[in-house]
Amino acid sequence: MTKRLFLAACALIAMHMLQAQTARQLTVSLSDDGKANIVGYLPTHPTGMAVVGCPGGGYRTLSMKNEGHDWSDYFNRQGIAYFVLTYRMPNGDRTIPMGDAEQAIRTVRDSAAVWGINPYNVGIMGFSAGGHLASTVSTHSSFDARPNFSILFYPVISMNERESHKGSCVNFLGTDGQKDARLVKTFSNQHAVRAHLTPPAIILTANDDRVVPPVTNGVAYYTAMRRAGNDCALYVYPTGGHGFGFKTTFGYHDQMLNDLTTWLQHHRGPKPGALRVACIGNSITDGYGIDMAEQQGYPAQLQRLLGSSYHVRNFGVSSRTLLNKGDHPYQQEEAWRAALAFRPDIVLIKLGTNDSKPENWQYHQDFASDLQQMIDALKANGHAPRIVLCTPIPAFKPTWNISDSVIVNGITPIINKVAKKNKLQVIDLHTLYVADGDKMLSDGIHPDAKGCRRMAEIIAEALRAKQ
Questions:
Q1: Angle at Cα 80 formed by Cα 78 and Cα 83, nearest 5°?
Q2: Considering the chain, what percentage of its residues have pLDDT values greater than 70?
Q3: Is-above-0.70 flag for pTM?
Q4: Which residues, 6 or more positions from 249, have their beta carbon under 8 angstroms from its beta carbon?
């Protein structure tokens, strides 16, 4: 009898502990018609991480249990806030579910302080067509609605009905939309992946999925992410078909949860209150020629040197000029808009290398005013960042008509003059890097991984010296 009472008491304690993982449940409406909402499960011991879940259903219905509410305890036990999204069906109008998902991300971020969430650690999870919605928001949405990471279960990625789930394609784009090759390609999200801007992702699918072919969907997204040098993981289980979600009957259920848990533990996001550092620049910042530049480029190496008190983001775009009349102006790029929306505490501007080309330097009289325009936009961003101007590193070879003489005698003096006018710090990378010509790619313009490390060391030391 005593043993039975003891076992019963243990069961009650275990049940209480299970229930205690969720401290609060809430529902928030997202649309005027009341048809879109999020149901939130807030954990007892929040870590600051949050996930917005998008159930699947072919953009025709929603699998709210297996791909929705059943996941709440799994996330809450890890201290992760979880929100199940009820999104409205597109019926050919893709802006409807996209708007609902974007509003969900914005709502979670807007309420972050109240709900114990780090607004820079909000992810999205999607299943099947919900995976397409999650990947669409991850690749197409503006910075304020773009998640910080993506969890994609057997996702629809392609909108080409011949290589994807036909119902999802037709329902999302509409019958007429399916006839528009440009539109089909635009929302086949493997084509929308961008270096640094598309958030890290984990993809989980089954090899025998005959509803959403893995190779032309999940694997295609992984391939695009890997080519862009972005952080991405791919798990393909031998069997399981389509729609396994949280079903315990899925043969690899426990392994899948362990895989996802391990990935989440390695993607905990920035430390709350970390100083946000925006690295603005051209291909040298972007990490041209370096495999996995998201991990080996100078901004990534700067992050490792500065530590967890800083949150460093790479906003570099190859071939870009500071000059607005240049062949590829930086201030016309999505990366520039994203850098402003990031609301950085520190901004590193390292532009000018491509401006030294004769076809661009013919507009040299605008260099100072275009740089001032960039500075003014950063100052007018509702935040007062510390702006640091970096001179270009040496051009050790005249590849692509890049001129080191113009960098030294034309661009650097203007940078120094504008910095003096605005009382900004200058990091003279040209002088400090001049002895590191052995740390360059064969083009003599771009640093290799060791050169990026050297750049990061110079910049980290200069930032610390002016604290």
A1: 135
A2: 96
A3: yes
A4: none
